[in-house]
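Continuing from yesterday's entry. The apo prediction looked reasonable, so today I'm repeating it with nicotinamide-adenine-dinucleotide included to see how the binding region is handled. Same sequence as before; SMILES copied from the compound registry.
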Amino acid sequence: MQGFAGKVAVVTGAGSGIGQALAIELGRSGAHVAISDIDTEGLAATEERLIAIGARVKADRLDVTEREAFSAYADSVVAHFDKVNQIYNNAGIAYTGDVEMTDFKDIERVVDVDYWGVVNGTMLFLPHLIASGDGHVINISSVFGLLGMPGQAAYCSAKFAVRGFTESLSLEMAIAGHPVKVTSVHPGGIKTAIARNMTTADGLDKVTLAKDFDTQMAKLSPEKAAHIILDGVRRRKARVLVGSDAKTLDIAVRVAASGLQRFLPRVLARANHPMPRQ
Ligand SMILES: NC(=O)c1ccc[n+]([C@@H]2O[C@H](COP(=O)([O-])OP(=O)(O)OC[C@H]3O[C@@H](n4cnc5c(N)ncnc54)[C@H](O)[C@@H]3O)[C@@H](O)[C@H]2O)c1
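Holo prediction written out below.
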């Protein structure tokens, strides 16, 4: 894809799924890539593929919730590549369970990774992105950052917060006249390991839920998702919807607005809503 040659791109959660596909497509497009993950095995696989492509790559174990380590990492990326143009705050986890079945720590864990991980990456790299003269923050939210869903209060909280943070930052950069574009990304169902990696409330059948996600909800390959995201980045879009499911939901939210709260409970048949399976 054009427009990425010579750019330095940081991708968190690059050991699997969308992050891995983003890193590889960026490498193919001539970008220099700083990849990180807590999963060192997956990270090594991504690094190997980037080396085979001939891309310049720096691979590090990084937990996006560890702010001090993230700060040192930002310095090390700049020292290594001399500049940073783009950060893809992609690392994320999922959790399923109704609020009544959920502990505080379940919500805190999701918000720590999915929201604070994004805030950490954005704020720690922002001075470097501004200094580059051609910066871009790309934050991965979700369709669940557009619409609340039963069983997804923790994940929706984090993904709505990512959207609010990202849209606010976008306006701030424009008003300040900083050379930094900001993009909020909202994928629908993508065929990755996210549901297999998720945690659930006690009593839920995680294997069945993950299977339902893989077979019924996950529509696009991570490669296709990465292509759509990078095309949006190249076109400097403020919001990228990934997949026809995301586009349909976005329209439904805008057209039906609060009417969805009356309408959805009837549509989301209780059978499809995750309930404890004893
Ligand atoms: N797959 C989907 O349908 C979908 C839909 C909407 C949004 N998303 C979002 O896309 C992003 C990527 O998810 P994916 O679908 O590729 O899932 P995935 O599970 O395949 O990949 C997520 C990666 O993040 C890493 N990670 C988890 N916690 C981390 C931490 N604390 N620090 C660093 N890395 C960490 C994991 O090790 C994994 O490699 C996530 O933010 C997810 O919420 C996914």
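Comparison notes:
- Residues 12-13, 15-19, 37-39, 42, 62-65, 90-93, 113-114, 117, 140, 142, 187, 189-190, 192-194, 197, 218 surround nicotinamide-adenine-dinucleotide (CB under 6 Å).
- The chain has one domain: 8-246.
Will overlay with the apo model tomorrow.
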